[in-house]
Design goal:
Blueprint: H1 2-41, H2 46-49, H3 51-86, H4 97-114, H5 116-138, H6 146-158, H7 162-202, H8 205-208, H9 217-249, H10 257-285
Helix pairs in contact: 1-6, 1-7, 1-9, 3-4, 3-7, 5-9, 7-9, 7-10, 9-10
């Protein structure tokens, strides 16, 4: 009778090991997919991410925001002219060069507003070039070899008994579910960044219209700093992905399967937190507020 119980025991173990391998394969596959998705999404320019949204934002900016920017330019230039005249000893020290300077500032202001989208897209094209370069360096080391990882775990799984295998099935199922939730959160972070970029671009003419004025120019300067920050946020995200992939690849799965599984979940939580904080860090680096 013992051989029958042994056969049943082996049969149950094979079922449980198969379930564990299936969960682990899904988890590692999700990691590879998540890393690839982040690397792809953060490397896209606004027009490359969704052309329809970009066209809508550009149309709204050109038809609604640019006329308001024209009013802002008029106010700023009038304020500049009045300040320029009155500060010269109540109009006693006026020279003709100051008017040439004022006309030059007016021309620059109008030029910047009429070419606002070219300016903003130049910032994101530069950031995309940096992100693409980082992806080329990091991308080769990010994928987990699923077959090798499962093979490394196999001897440890074969040595376990049914109660421990049952516990491992529950653990892998729970962590796999958490990984899917983390994937949704990461997608929200990526999409939220792109939507923030579109919102920045939609109102770009107004802060750009203030750049030629000494007192109002801080609005436009801070706007450009924010553009640079949100553009280079993608580079920081790529570094987060690279660190995450190295941590997961260096994880020793053969020694303690339980700690390895929860370490993977912890690394994914850390990745989500790092991606969420990357925006604030980028703005801090560029002194944007």
């Amino acid at each position: 009778m013992d051989f029958i119980f042994d056969a049943i025991n082996e049969w149950i173990k094979k079922i449980l090991i198969g379930a564990i391998n299936g969960n682990l394969s899904t988890m590692f596959g999700d990691v590879n997919e998540k890393v690839g998705t982040i690397a792809t999404e953060v490397g896209k320019t606004p027009q490359g991410w969704n052309g329809n949204i970009f066209s809508m934002v550009q149309n709204l900016s050109e038809t609604i925001i640019i006329p308001i920017a024209g009013i802002v330019i008029t106010y700023v230039l009038c304020y500049e002219l009045i300040s320029m005249i009155t500060e010269k000893n109540n109009m006693h020290d006026i020279d003709t060069f100051m008017f040439f300077k004022w006309f030059f500032k007016a021309w620059v202001a109008v030029f910047l507003v009429t070419h606002t989208f070219d300016l903003t897209m130049a910032v994101f094209d530069m950031a995309q070039h940096v992100v693409s370069g980082a992806a080329g360096i990091i991308g080769g080391d990010t994928n987990i070899d699923v077959e090798a990882a499962l093979s490394a775990m196999q001897s440890g799984l074969d040595a376990m008994e049914i109660p421990e295998l049952l516990l491992l099935v529950l653990e892998t199922s729970l962590v796999s579910l958490c990984m899917k939730i983390m994937s949704v959160l990461i997608t929200v972070i990526l999409y939220g960044r792109m939507i923030e970029i579109y919102l920045y671009c939609s109102v770009a003419p107004i802060p750009i219209a203030t750049m030629t004025n000494r007192e109002w120019g801080q609005i436009g300067n801070n706007y450009l700093k924010s553009l640079l920050a949100i553009g280079f946020q993608g580079f920081l995200m790529m570094i987060c992905v690279g660190i995450y992939a190295v941590l997961v690849n260096d994880m020793i799965v053969a020694d303690n399967l339980h700690s390895a599984i929860f370490s993977l979940a912890a690394y994914t939580v850390i990745l989500c937190f790092s991606l969420f904080k990357s925006g604030a860090l980028a703005k801090s680096i560029f002194s944007a507020h």
